[in-house]
């Protein structure tokens, strides 16, 4: 375990106090007539946290859960960028630290809404910088 992983492991309980954006994303972007400036145009950084051991094929390993979800979201991002001209959406980095599994990505609220509707997603929050003073 390297130093960065160790720091993240102890800071995760503090960082995870952030607000889950799923309820608002689902409410605001649930139909085709949703506000395009809110749902499509505004791209921000998000952290997606997955339910440990949840996999579509019944495998309970965190590695498989993360791998399946990441394959799905990368395809969604690629298709979304092609079909909607949203070149600023993109995948960031995967995280697997103990039972904390997830990734960060630059997404619009429409994509966040799609992510939030998956059963393997625990919560989604804004990717914020945290400082300790």
Automatic annotation (TrEMBL):
Keyword annotations of the record: Signal
Keyword Signal: yes
Residue ranges constituting the Inhibitor I9 domain according to the UniProt record: 46-132
Keyword Signal: yes
Domain of life the protein comes from: Eukaryota
InterPro entries per UniProt: S8pro/Inhibitor_I9
SUPFAM superfamilies to which the protein is assigned, alphabetical: Protease propeptides/inhibitors
Signal peptide span: 1-18
The protein's name: Inhibitor I9 domain-containing protein
Organism of derivation: Furculomyces boomerangus
């Amino acid at each position: 375990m390297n130093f960065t992983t160790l720091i993240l492991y102890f800071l995760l309980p503090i960082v995870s106090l952030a607000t889950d954006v799923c309820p608002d994303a689902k409410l605001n972007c649930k139909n085709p007539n949703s506000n395009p400036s809110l749902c499509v145009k505004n791209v921000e950084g998000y952290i997606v946290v997955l339910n440990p051991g949840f996999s579509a094929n019944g495998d309970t390993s965190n590695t498989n859960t993360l791998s399946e979800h990441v394959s799905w979201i990368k395809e969604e991002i690629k298709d979304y960028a092609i079909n909607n001209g949203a070149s600023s959406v993109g995948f960031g980095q995967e995280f697997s630290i103990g039972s904390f599994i997830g990734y960060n990505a630059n997404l619009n609220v429409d994509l966040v809404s799609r992510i939030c509707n998956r059963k393997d997603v625990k919560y989604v929050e804004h990717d914020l910088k945290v400082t300790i003073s």
